[in-house]
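How a chain folds remains the central question behind the approach discussed here. No coordinates are needed to read the tokens, only the vocabulary itself. For completeness, the protein is quoted in full, as a sequence line and a line of structure tokens:
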Amino acid sequence: MTADRIKAVLFDMDGVLIDAKDWHYEALNRALELFGFAIERQAHLSTFDGLPTRRKLQMLSATQGLPVGLHGLINELKQAYTIELSYSKCRPILELQMALSRLKREGYRLAVCSNSIRQTVETMMQLAALDGYLDLALSNQDVAHAKPDPEIYLMAMQRLGLTPAECLIVEDNEHGIQAARASGGQVMVVGSVADVSYDRIKAEISRAEGGAA
């Protein structure tokens, strides 16, 4: 039995295609501080990284007593601050553009699957000049259950008409990695945006395609 050929690459966004982890952290803390709350950086990295804002707020209500009635306002402020930071910091990265362009030219289907809201995904992909390479872009608003649930990756596979074995998923944080593995897809773990290159992705595709006897 031979391995399935990889036909699509599904990318997480923050920390994979966009170096935006700190932007989300800064934006949420800016909103929280208006009401006397904050997330420490170590807690952000170890516990909160990669989760949707609404889930982070639920956790803060449970651990710090953040009033539930403030969730809606804080979420709105956080999203506005994130867009503001995106316009000031998000720029095209040539190596990523080249990677997606070459993969697209070689016939791979490309998608982004993010725990961010749709507006943030669309804005960041446009500012990074990556939107033109994508066959599909999914946000946490497209699914009932965000990562670490695998729903977003399973939905992407279904919409692309592919099996999990035909998809390589590029992820960087524990919640996303958990979702990717639970989906049944092939998983490439990166440490940062700097680790995402055409050569590394192709090497991982070769490994995945040769992994089954």
About this structure: The chain has two domains: 8-19+92-209, 21-89.
